[in-house]
Amino acid sequence: MRTVFLGTPHFAVPSLERLVKAGHEVIAVYTQPDKPAGRKGTLTAPPVKQAALALGL
């Protein structure tokens, strides 16, 4: 099944991982843009983006 995944917070990551492991074709992942964090304002990716990149999406 071709799927588009939308999510940002930590609790959305297991759902994305299960979809991929179940063999679904994730054709797109939509999440919030990277945001500045910390005193230096370094850009930090949301958890779903980090998971999608780790899964090769």
Topology (SSEs and partners):
Elements: E1 2-6, H1 13-21, E2 25-30, E3 35-37, E4 42-44, H2 47-54
Parallel strand pairs: 1-2
Antiparallel strand pairs: 3-4
Sum up the structure in keywords:
single chain, 57 residues, alpha+beta, two-stranded antiparallel sheet, 30% strand, elongated
Detailed description of the structure:
The chain has 57 residues and is α+β, with helices and mostly antiparallel strands. The protein has one domain (2-54). It is built from two helices and four strands, in the order βαβββα. The chain has helices spanning 13-21, 47-54, and strands at 2-6, 25-30, 35-37, 42-44. The strands form two sheets. A two-stranded parallel ribbon has the order 1-2. A two-stranded antiparallel sheet has the order 3-4. Strand 1, helix 1 and strand 2 form a beta-alpha-beta unit. The radius of gyration is 12 Å and the shape is elongated. It starts with a strand and ends with a helix.
Which residues sit in consecutive blocks of at least 5 with pLDDT less than 50? none
How helical, in percent, are the residues? 25-40%
Number of strands: 4
Q: How would you write the strand order of the largest sheet?
A: 1-2
Largest sheet composition: 2 strands, parallel
How many individual helices? 2
Task: Give the DSSP E fraction (strand runs of 2 or more residues).
Answer: 25-35%
Summarize the helix and strand pattern as letters: EHEEEH
Shape assignment: elongated
How many domains, as an integer? 1
Mean pLDDT: 94
What is the gyration radius calculated from CA atoms? 12 Å
For the record, give the distance between the C-alpha atoms at the N and C termini, rounded to a whole number.
15 Å
Structural class by helix and strand composition? alpha+beta
This entry's quaternary arrangement is single chain
